[in-house]
Specification:
There is one protein chain. This protein folds into 2 domains: 156 residues, Orthogonal Bundle (Cytochrome Bc1 Complex, Chain D, domain 2), CATH 1.10.760.10; 149 residues, Cytochrome Bc1 Complex, Chain D, domain 2 (Orthogonal Bundle), CATH 1.10.760.10. 34% of the residues lie in helices and 1% in strands. It is built from 14 helices and 2 strands. The chain has a two-stranded antiparallel sheet with strand order 1-2.
């Protein structure tokens, strides 16, 4: 089809998100901007852009280079390497269930205030794609196929930064994960082992794991509050996190609570990838907490270094956490290049 702005009969084909049953029952509707509705053509364009290295300055990196489907759209390096061979100071966040981020603050430090704006920053970041949006738009405009693909998605062959990030955001909103073992348990389709059930109990008990305040419970299938917390990683901060964005010293050392979904695929963990294993994460909360001026009040056992789990309790908690992983998500052909 060769459509244009003058072809008033043509409209991109609406493609609402496929919302999982658990989400319909437990959380409110996804956030879809009025000026960027989901369409078949927009999603297809966004997917192609996501896997295309044309967005980077030297053609060596795509969004998928640091957000791989095989690792739940994260990176198995502690901190990702950009086009110039330089590592940043942040771990690549996994990408899924983004349409339900009601804070509308994205990235570890909340610096981006919409998914569309989040898609803009890595392209021009000097330690990521290190490109220039004018140059990217020119490359896309001179490409033999992209003008027509933009025409199909947005009814104009004139490519802009704004339309490019809109397409990327449309694809990213389709990255929905809701088929873990625990999801199927919640739907009454499978049973959990005694170890997994005990791990859930530890997760929910304030006198045990006390994890649910930041990461939700079975009634919150996102498994995150999408808020920002100082979770006792450091006594002093080289990376101020949210504090660097807001300028408020009370926010220093605060980072987004990531979803606990897909932990089997997303190691290493924390904003700087400091923990190579899930066992190390559990040990941190059990006996490794560091006090500081902005420590979250939810870290109630800070004076004794953590919640002090036994070896068996740690094993059970880990078993439950791994039940939140969704192999079908990382193998979904709709999300592959």
């Amino acid at each position: 089809m060769n459509c244009s702005n003058e072809d008033t009969a043509y409209e991109p084909t609406s493609q609402p998100l496929n919302i999982p049953e658990l989400f319909l029952d437990n959380i409110v509707a996804p956030i879809i901007p009025n000026d960027n509705p989901q369409t078949i053509e927009g999603i297809a364009l966004g997917k192609r852009l996501f896997f295309d290295r044309i967005l980077s300055s030297n053609g060596t990196k795509a969004c998928a280079s640091c957000h791989s489907p095989q690792t739940a759209f994260s990176d198995n390096s502690a901190t990702s390497i950009g086009v110039d061979g330089i590592a940043g100071n942040r771990n690549s966040m996994p990408l899924f269930n983004l349409a339900w981020n009601y804070s509308e603050r994205f990235a570890w430090d909340g610096k981006e205030l919409s998914l569309e704006r989040q898609a803009e920053e890595p392209v021009q970041n000097p330690i990521e794609m290190h490109s220039d949006w004018d140059a990217v738009v020119e490359r896309l405009q001179n490409h033999p196929e992209y003008p027509e693909l933009f025409n199909l998605a947005f009814k104009t062959p004139t490519i802009t930064k704004e339309l490019t990030t809109k397409a990327l955001a449309q694809f990213e909103r389709t990255l929905i994960s809701a088929n873990s073992k625990f999801d199927r348990y919640s739907l009454g389709e499978v049973t959990l082992s005694a170890e997994e059930l005990n791990g859930l109990d530890i997760f929910l008990r304030e006198d045990k794991g006390d994890c649910f305040h930041c990461h939700g419970n079975p009634n919150n299938p996102l498994w995150t509050d999408n808020d920002f917390h100082n979770n006792g990683l450091d006594a002093t901060f080289e990376d101020l996190g949210l504090g660097a964005v807001t300028g408020d010293p009370n926010d220093n050392g605060k980072f987004r609570s990531p979803s606990l979904r897909n932990l089997a695929f997303t190691a290493p963990y924390m904003h700087d990838g400091r923990f190579a294993t899930l066992d190390a994460v559990i040990n941190h909360y059990s006996e490794g907490l560091q006090n500081s001026a902005t420590i979250d009040p939810l870290m109630k056992q800070i004076n004794q270094g953590g919640v002090q789990l036994t070896t068996q309790e740690k094993q059970d908690l880990k078993a439950f956490l791994l039940s939140l992983s969704d192999p079908s998500f990382i193998n979904n052909s709709n999300f592959q290049n």
